[in-house]
Design goal:
Blueprint: E1 3-6, H1 11-22, E2 28-31, E3 46-48, H2 54-61, E4 68-71, H3 78-83, H4 85-105, E5 110-116, H5 139-154, E6 161-167, E7 169-171, H6 189-198, E8 204-207, E9 219-220, E10 222-224, H7 225-242, E11 246-250, E12 256-257, H8 258-269, E13 275-278, E14 287-288, H9 293-298, H10 308-325
Parallel strand pairs: 1-2, 1-4, 2-3, 4-5, 5-6, 6-11, 7-10, 8-13, 9-14
Antiparallel strand pairs: 9-12
Helix pairs in contact: 1-7, 2-4, 4-5, 6-8, 6-10, 8-10
The structure holds nicotinamide-adenine-dinucleotide (NAD).
Length: 326
Amino acid sequence: MNFLVTGGAGYIGSHMVSFLQNLNFNPVVLDNFSTGRKRLLKNCEILNVDLKDKEKLSYILKDRKFDAVFHFAAKSIVSESYIMPDSYFNNNLDGTMNLVEEMKKNKNEILVFSSSAAVYGNPQAKIIKEEHPKSPISPYGKSKLLCEEFLASEQSNENFNYCSLRYFNAAGADNLAGIGEYRNKESHLIPLVLNSIIKNNESIDIYGNDYDTSDGTCVRDFIHVCDLVEAHFNVFKKIRNDKKSFTFNLANEKGYSVLEIIKVCEKITKKKVKYSFNKRRQGDPATLVADCQKARKEIFWSPSKSNIENIVGTAWKWHASLKLKK
Ligand SMILES: NC(=O)c1ccc[n+]([C@@H]2O[C@H](COP(=O)([O-])OP(=O)(O)OC[C@H]3O[C@@H](n4cnc5c(N)ncnc54)[C@H](O)[C@@H]3O)[C@@H](O)[C@H]2O)c1
């Protein structure tokens, strides 16, 4: 089978590529390398294209038929999306529209889309189910919801089906493949904490300690990146069999506060983390925890690598290995 992975040189996309390679497939990667890195990829065809470049995209994908397209490519830094909202809408929405247009021209029928918990906005329930109202706060979250709405408008049972996967917080690393999270502008909690330890205990900022949570810091739901990409393959099989479109939350159904994550990082690394409290950031809900029963039942997904010690442990091995290579 043939698979295309857009954003395959990024954090989650590179784990999808490795997962497919382990099943003996030869996925093709499409990436503009804005945040992606060649060093996360081994032995695969790489199409160096920007999804916004309609003409080049059309030329490169002409007559190419894929059993599924896994669409990870996006700009995804929430704070940056407030500073340059237009470039988030252009990149994420226009990129998705161009991709779907080319897929349809070439009779590609299945798209698995990386959506986000950011489409929900401020939770109105303790645990978020897929039917929860959508009211994104950030331009990033809005761009993802617009993509979901666009995909719904393009769906047709016989010719084009998709699944929107709403990830909560992806984390961890595939130590066997030697890949992990690696960004110039890091904004994710676990790599920030682990990098602060590597950089001789630089202090990190915690944004807000006056939220309505057990210790006043934000609570998030972390899913191991290897469990996450496995769900994508299950979803592909489900769409192929049922010829329908779907939406699933993907998370671990457990919340950890920022301070609890710091404690786990200290336990795994046996180092003390320095931090100071800063004011709340725009658009950060107090708690984001998912209900994933729908994915568990309908795509037989059962995350097995997502206990928090394993997430932090695999991330730590990855970050420590990067330090050795420097
Ligand atoms: N990391 C998370 O916790 C998380 C949570 C929710 C949703 N997501 C979504 O998952 C997807 C992957 O996230 P990630 O953390 O791996 O991010 P990432 O930045 O590591 O990967 C994104 C990849 O897409 C590429 N890309 C961006 N715009 C492109 C374009 N116009 N054309 C071609 N390539 C382009 C980048 O170069 C990069 O390789 C994104 O869609 C993101 O919104 C991630």
